């Protein structure tokens, strides 16, 4: 009898965490490394949020809470959805989990049976397919190419839907591409979904507040109210509020689904950290001015990185609508040899040689379901980004 579960054969370690870990190890060994793999803001959690957490500790709010969130936080989440997205929810339609990842995982675990299919636009966040596999479902990638600005078409969505389709996972702005769907683009997709009432929608809106230029964020149940009763609208405080380590995500949807997610959570982690919940409450209800300042900072970084990467031979880097990632195409680099003698056979070989020869850590595109590409997280300082992009330029110039 094997000791380890067969489940492990269905899941892979996170490539983004692996890259970040490798970069940290090299840096600890004394190598000059610039890590562009981690998807988290480089600035600190706002002071008012930290102060709220300290007050919660001082007031003894360190006990167990309701499994899926304190009432005050659920009420604040309802107010956020109404004010920012025009969506009306009651507290019993809200679930709070230990990060956005747990929210998505709970929903899939609560609903997926063997043979159920989950449509996932690619490039995708690395965890989506593995979470579907862990829940017993079958991920169905639908590839959005550079030519379509990394956005799937209504025809692609229509073609992917079968009688076995349980969920459509939607992420805009996207990790890893930063691509954002306009209202009209999303309406074209929701029109398709309206014709297939057995398909549920899981909308991952984690990068809602990180959109640039004149792009306007929208979410499926907002664009098509007819989908309200089969949409789980997911969000969290990690990215916009620089609270990645606090681990608070949330979602709103039909009562029966939220209750089922709570059942899963009650037998896994139980409640999210009580102190983090009070911090998230302050994040959602306190001053919001810093969101605009941070957005401007990220937009400037995006423009810097896009400009410098497009100056590198063999690289094409589109300008994304949001998030804090770019997903350059490296077709012009494949088949060449680096100055250090490495054969660039694919994007993983490119990323490996780049790290070993220049000390720049990026995540290779195959991890996100579309090659040949790599992902850069520009959630770091201008100085580090400028140096990293200069090294990437020199690396590409050295390819023969």
TrEMBL record:
Molecular functions per Gene Ontology: L-aspartate:2-oxoglutarate aminotransferase activity; pyridoxal phosphate binding
Cofactor: pyridoxal 5'-phosphate
PROSITE patterns: AA_TRANSFER_CLASS_1
Chain ranges of the Aminotransferase class I/classII large domain: 31-392
SUPFAM superfamilies: PLP-dependent transferases
Catalytic activity from the UniProt record: L-aspartate + 2-oxoglutarate = oxaloacetate + L-glutamate
GO BP terms: amino acid metabolic process
UniProt entry tagged with the keyword Transferase: yes
Pfam families: Aminotran_1_2
EC number: 2.6.1.-
Keyword Transferase: yes
Matches recorded under InterPro entries: Aminotransferase_I/II_large, AspAT/PAT-like, NHTrfase_class1_PyrdxlP-BS, PyrdxlP-dep_Trfase, PyrdxlP-dep_Trfase_major, PyrdxlP-dep_Trfase_small
Family per similarity comment: Belongs to the class-I pyridoxal-phosphate-dependent aminotransferase family.
PANTHER family registered for this protein in UniProt: ASPARTATE AMINOTRANSFERASE
Subunit (UniProt): Homodimer.
Protein name per the record: Aminotransferase
Species of provenance: Gemmobacter aquatilis
